[in-house]
Each structure stands twice: as C-alpha cells, then as structure tokens.
Design a protein that fits this description.
27% helix; alpha/beta; binds alpha-D-galactopyranose; TIM Barrel; eight-stranded parallel sheet
Length: 417
Amino acid sequence: MKALSLPLLLGAVFFTHEARAQASVKPAAAAPAKFEQLARTPQMGWNTWNTFACDIDEKLIRQAADALVASGMRDAGYVYLNIDDCWHGERDAKGFIQPDPRRFPSGMKALADYVHARGLKLGIYSDAGAHTCAGRPGSRGHEYQDALTYAEWGVDYLKYDWCDTEGLSAPGAYTTMRDALRAAGRPILFSLCEWGNNKPWEWAKDVGHSWRTTGDIYPCWDCEFNRGTWASLGVLPILDKQANLRKYSGPGRCNDMDMLEVGKGMSEDEDKAHFSIWAMLNSPLIAGNDIRSMSAATRKILTNRAIIALNQDERGIQAWRFMNDGQLDMYAKPLAGGEWALMFLNRDDKPRRYTFDWNAHHIVDEISGSQVHFGKQRHGYTDLWSGATGDTARPAALTVPAHGVVVLRLQHQASGS
Ligand code: GLA
C-alpha cells in the first residue's frame, strides 16, 4: 500500500506546487469526472447494515459471498457485496486507514480476492466527516489517501455517508471524494448517502451514480420509527417522498430509496410490494436480510427476475403515479421496446377488488415522451407475481392484496393477433 501510494501522493503535492509556480498556465488535464459506465442500470447487491449493523467480520463477508452464489442471487444480478459501517481500525502513522485487525485479520485485499473469485464485487463504506455514523474514522482530510487505499485493495463500490459534517458543503465534500476516486484510477461505483438533506438530485448526477433521497429505512409498511434526533421510515413514507424526483433519475444516476428490508419481518405481500416499488422506481436493489438463512419465500421474492427486469430496464425511467382511487395507487413505467409496466398498489389493510378499464386511460409520460392507449392499441400482459396472462381487449378484474401489489408487464400485440 505505502510503496504505491506515497510516491503518488508526493507527486500530487509536487503537482500542486508546480501548478502554483506556473499560475498563469492553464492545466491541460481534463476535468475530473465520475466513472460513467458503472451502474447504467441501478446497482444490485447485498449490504451488512440492516441485519448486522456493527457486528461484522471477514467470516460473515465470506459466508455472505457464498450465500449470494448458492442462493442464485448473484446470477439474478446481485453482484455487489457491500461492507457498511464498522469495518475500520485505526489510521497508521502516515494516515492510511487499516481494517479492524480483530474482525478483519486477513485484510481487505484478501477479502476482495475471495469475493472476486466468486464473480462478485466488493463494496466498502466511509463518511465525508471526520467520523462515520457509528463513530469510526471518516474520510475528511484523507479523501485521496482513502481512495488510493480502496483502489489498492480492489474495492469496486463506495457508499459515502454524511455524519459529523456540520459546516461542510455537501456538493463540495462529495465532489472531493469523486475526484479522489477518479485520481486513484480504479473504477469504483460512488453511492452518495446524504439522506436527501441537500437535494443531491439537483447536483449529484455528475458526482455519483446514486444518491439517497431519504433517511434510513425501517421494516414496516406505513410507520415512522423515532430515533430521537431523526426517524427511520417504513415503505410508504419513503415512497411518498419520491413524488417529484423522477426527472432526476436515468441511466447511470438514480434516486436511492435505501436498502431493502425484504425478509426482515414484514408480511409476504408487504415484501412483494416493497420489492416491486423499489424496482419500479429505479432504486438500487441492495438486499439487507440475512441471506445465509433466508426462507424460500424471501429468496423467491428477491430473485423474481421479471420484477428485477423492470428495475434493470435500459431506458432507466422511474415510474410515476398516473392515477389513484382511494387507497389504490397506479404507477406506470415505460420500458425499452415500447413495453410498459403497471403497478397497482393497495395501501389499505384489506384486499381491494378493482376493474381496470383499458379504454378509459390514455397514459402520457411528459418526462420521457412515451405514451400509450391500451384500449386503442391492444396489449398482452403478464402478472409478474402470479404468472397469469391476459390482454387489454377486456377490462382487467384485479384483486390487489392488502398492503400488496399487482404488477403487469404489457407488450403491444400486432393487429390481428
Ligand atoms: C447511516 C446510513 C445507514 C448506515 C449507517 C451506518 O445511518 O444512512 O445506511 O450506513 O449510517 O452507521
């Protein structure tokens, strides 16, 4: 680490002095930028925080890597294995961060090798302030050193938090780390975790690949869990905070609704709805349950490839609520190839029967320019949870479970079919 990074650092210092000495000469180097080709569709993976918080070590990470493979999650797209807060030890005498020697005795490079050997990528966590949210060393003042360290270890993903940042400019702090990652040279996906405090959707599209839009998630349908100075939010409160953000989402940049709570205690219908909402709204799909011991039902939800395909659609258009009827919300998402996804979301405590008349709706997306009239252009559809099929020649008689969804994928049928 030191052999590689010190000369680079000295080079950076020298360059700064040189640049000062030649202040009238404009540097020819291109402006730093994020790595553009990462996360063209929302990133998918697993993260330690929701289940394990600070109780993590290298054995858990290896087991999680094995579980991602054995469960079929990797093959369904979950390739990032992300270590959240609390992996840190001390900084060494030169300021380089070390992993906690008790919990990660083999070191991060060895762990990255283990993860990479299984076709996965390794994510790590830091914070723009001097301390992380759990009080570990943050990156403030060490951004370039930390980026070099992550690159040297073989890290592929950085989640960058916002604790202990009083007085800091969010665009400034995140841009500094983006530039540090770029300077370190290894393509590292940059996930901003600033909770939406400084409207990152307005300034972060050239800084990172995703930005959290809200505070932390909590595994409940429609609750807020008070934690004193802040509250964690259930599925519906997070959903409702996304209403005006869809225009900021697109390939390579997305609104992050926080990690998934599928398999963490909600009902099966709630889990299906939570997963479908995150997929429809183009949020990263980062599982947070204990994937080593999950039930078959949880695994089936997380690996529903038809739902995942909506999230990973190449157009990257975030769904919007095009109508609602009482407690029933209807969301639409235009897809590649002129296809559409519709999600009927029942917020209510009891199941809802609903007949959707295809003739009554001309759906127009002002942001992407897509529009469709299912009554006039006959479409066939598949219910992505039940597998049932139908077409838009007749009204759809739906039963949407309590706290649940029906998600349909529609494809235009050539006339005469
Ligand atoms: C913040 C983040 C969480 C998690 C914790 C770790 O609360 O929003 O996602 O990373 O910090 O301390």
